[in-house]
Amino acid sequence: MSTAGTSTPPPGPRVLLDPTSERVPSKRPRAPRPASLSGATIGLLDISKSRGDVFLDRIADHLSRRGLRVERYSKPTFTKPAPVDLRHRIATTCDVVIEALAD
Amino acid sequence: MAGVTTFTTRAALPDGLAVVVRSDCPTCRLIVPVLAQLAEGGASLTILTQDGPGFPPGLSCIDDSSLDLSFALGIDTVPTVVRLAGGREVARAAGWSRDEWEKVCSSTGLGPGLPGYRPGCGSLTQDPALEDRRAGQWARAHLASRRIPLGELEDEAEAMFERGWTDGLPVVAPTEARVARMLSGTSRDPGEVVAVVPPDMAEATVEKVAVNAVLAGCRPEYLPVVLAAVEAACTPEFNAHGVLATTYFPGPVVIVNGPLARAIGMNSGINALGPGNRANATIGRALQLVIRNVGGGRPGEVDRATLGQPGKYTFCFAEDEQGSPWEPLSVERGLPPGTSAVTVFAGEAPRAVFDQLSREPSSLVRTYAACLRTVAHPKWPVAYDAVLVVSPEHGEVFRRAGWSKDRLRAELDELLQLPVEELVQGAGGMAEGIPPRWAETNRTLPKLRPGGLLVVHAGGRAGLFSAIIGSWVSGPAGSEPVTKEVRA
Known about the structure:
By secondary structure, chain A is α/β, with parallel strands linked by helices. Chain A has helices at about 50-65, 85-95, and strands at about 15, 40-45, 70-75, 95-100. In chain A, about 15% of the residues are buried. Chain B has helices spanning about 25-30, 30-40, 70-75, 100-105, 130-140, 155-160, 175-185, 205-215, 225-235, 240-245, 260-265, 280-295, 330, 360-370, 390-400, 405-415, 420-425, 435-440, and strands spanning about 15-20, 45-50, 60-65, 75-80, 80-85, 90-95, 95, 115-120, 120, 145-150, 195, 200-205, 250-255, 315-320, 340-355, 385-390, 415-420, 445, 455, 465-475, 480-485. The longest helix of chain B has 16 residues, at about 280-295. The interface between A and B is large, with 24 and 59 residues. Strand 1 of chain A pairs antiparallel with strand 10 (about 145-150) of chain B.
């Protein structure tokens, strides 16, 4: 059989297709740590895992006794990322957040 | 499946007759006088020569040694004559048959002195060595994924492990040709976005899913099922982010219904939940690789499972619909009978249900209830769903007694109303259980929430066993099973 239509191309480098999303993660610096908590509003985020409230109640107790302002928040369910509105509310209200990832 | 002809774009040829030939085909040489006769008779004639110009002698022809036009016309034999009108094919004859050629060419007296019939030769488009080249060419023109050249001394399998593309088992290298062939399994555009995949919330195109389906070892005809599984798993209801991130056990269990499951050779019989069937094994794996590679969900990173389970490599099976005493899962979940569909369920590993003595459904259903109670914890109601995989021999017990799926479910619901005093924290000497306040307002609590039990029929003909696949946290607080129709 003639091979006019079928001649194999010369061997080149093996090329694979990237199976990933091809994203390059952008790095953002952490917010600077506050030097002191005085005058700060502290958010306590309960992710709705069992006994997270027990832990945060104690923290709230300690912080309030030091005269600090505490705001309580909770995620609707621990199984999903926090809703955007909740994240926004915390970010615009609080200087510091403590999250209870309890089990 | 369309095979290599998929990698073509429609060729524009003038209306009239197109004849495809090759110079080393005796029948093509035999009919040169016919071509001359047609050309002299004033027919609008285009001759396409597969092995370069210069044949047929004395007649003008188009060099189709690229075979683009031959592929576009779907030629498998030379000579072939095709009549085109309004840009569409209206008639064709393959090989040489005077009667057929005269019909196609609307002529009479073609090839006087030639035999009435001679078979043709194979078209060069049928050369299997061509497929890779064609597929590669098509991929270069149509696919957007980043190209990753391997070093000359790099071992292919090792290179893919090193780049973090695998679940720990070897994968198939996603070359341009393989991805192009994979895409021949769907009519969807490679650039179409199938889903946004957590945890990175990255868009998965049909092409990216195909690349991962190649990695997983799929055949092209499995791709529509993989695409549907990816769509289903990436819905907010299924909550793939949570299923991945939890310290608990679940992975996406893919249950396939409808004619496509049989057509692509999925296993719903012996060892349905186990190894040995390529479609079952690779479809479930492809979904997990999409979550890993496109979504960025990797064990030890966002996947925080304490123990995990082997079904997170792959967990996919088909329902045995033909042998089932009941309607298929997809129908129960609202799709018309005969529709191919996938259902994804956030499941743990299957657990065995042993009952070799029950011959009456009233007995067997009690076995099921006792075993279903143990999902997650025998003292936890409501919070977990389950898939009950009923094997043929167990299914027969219900069939003989005329129990519908609804009846089975109703009886289970009744048996699984658990007395709160057995569930409360501390009861039975076990700290785990429901908070005491739940016990104040209820006398019993159901093990399963309404709609929390999926019943599927699968397995080998012999064996009085069934299986239970427990869920992760069920419902809106966790994961809902999701069913999607499979689109071609």
